[in-house]
Design brief:
By secondary structure, the protein is an alpha/beta fold. About 20% of the residues lie in helices and about 25% in strands. A seven-stranded mixed sheet has the order 4-5-8-9-11-10-12, covered by helices on one side. Helix 2 packs parallel to helix 5.
Length: about 350
């Protein structure tokens, strides 16, 4: 892991302004121990102006949050061509040369819009996705069902564990909404699964055995925001309860949820009885296109405001103070919103 370069940071608080266009002044320089960037919703045939901005932050890791390309196909040649188009972009190639890359997929790179376990091409799609990430041919993901994986960043000061979930391969059917303003509504409690039995068992073992100072759980779809009527963990309310209980009972330190999919960026936060820190879902989306017509959307767990401009997420870790500074950044590397959480 390369050494971090010092960089400027913003004041340690949640921005309270109402517009994501607000210019924010830099304050005193403070070094952080590790920096991780992440994002989602990236069209390979559209210029991604944010790669240059992402590179400016000298991150130690880039995490793809899903919809890394838009292909929506069961044609192997087309899917690989689309991945190659992304891989050959000049600024993304620079990121590959300087930064470790990992991630998950969502539906459009999986190959089927809102797709789940029913997709007949998922085994072939999995291999192409792993090829895109440069995963070794002998990696266990080459033989397992689903792309879930974990990895640790180990430093002299502490450890960050990244747990990448697969919310596509095993996900069972969704319930169409009666409310015509929405696409889906929650399944009956206890009906269906997002992760499937094997992945749930794996996730439990990963959290129960974690000695990391911080644990990042990457989900392509939002975990906490559940009122909008699109894809979300809240369509499987028993799965949300199971995840929260698993996190609490594991005693894992500093768990933070990362998500994408929505073409907007926002923070969602809940307080959990028995958990001595709030559970935050940091949604970062999108990289090349956004919900530009966004006006409002209910989310009872929202912290701050919705950013509907192009953005990527940035996480800055301070082991000594057990803090993560979370930032949404966009054009010209401008900070759009930020949140500091102490664990």
């Amino acid at each position: 892991m390369k050494l971090l370069k010092s960089f400027f940071i913003l004041s340690m608080c949640l921005v309270s302004c109402k517009s994501s266009k607000t210019n924010l002044a830099f304050e005193d320089e403070k070094p952080y121990d590790i920096t991780i960037a992440f994002g989602s919703c990236n069209k390979q045939n559209v210029e991604n102006i944010l790669w240059k901005e992402i590179l400016k932050n000298n991150s130690d890791l880039w995490i793809w949050g899903g919809d890394n390309i838009y292909s929506d196909t069961d044609n192997k040649e087309k899917l690989w061509k689309d991945y190659q188009e992304q891989s050959m972009q000049t600024d993304y190639k620079k990121l590959q040369e300087t930064t470790k890359i990992m991630g998950t997929w969502d539906d459009h790179d999986y190959g089927l819009n809102d797709g789940g376990e029913e997709f007949h091409f998922k085994d072939e799609s999995q291999q192409l996705f792993l090829d895109f990430l440069g995963v070794s041919k002998i990696d266990k993901r080459r033989k397992q069902k689903g792309i879930y994986a974990s990895e640790e960043i180990v430093t002299e000061k502490g450890i960050i564990k990244i747990i990448v979930l697969d919310t596509r391969f095993f996900r069972t059917g969704l319930t169409n909404a009666v409310d015509k303003s929405k696409r889906y509504q929650p399944n009956k409690y206890g009906e269906g699964t997002i992760l499937g039995d094997a992945q749930w068992q794996w996730l439990k073992e990963e959290l129960d055995s974690s000695h990391a100072n911080f644990n990042l759980i990457v989900s392509s779809i939002q975990v906490l925001s559940g009122e909008h009527g699109f894809e979300t963990w809240a369509n499987f309310p028993h799965e949300v309860d199971r995840l929260v209980a698993l996190i609490k009972n594991s005693k894992a330190k500093g768990v933070l949820l990362l998500s994408g999919d929505r073409h907007i960026s926002e923070f969602s936060k809940i307080n959990v009885n028995g958990l001595d820190y709030p559970l935050i879902d940091f949604t970062s989306s999108g990289l090349t296109h956004t919900y530009s017509g966004f006006r409002k959307e209910p989310n009872k767990f929202r912290e701050g405001f919705v950013v509907s401009h192009l953005s990527f997420g940035l996480l800055k870790f301070d082991f000594e103070n057990s803090e993560i500074l979370m930032e949404m950044r966009g054009k010209n590397n401008q900070i759009q919103q930020k949140l500091l959480q102490k664990y």
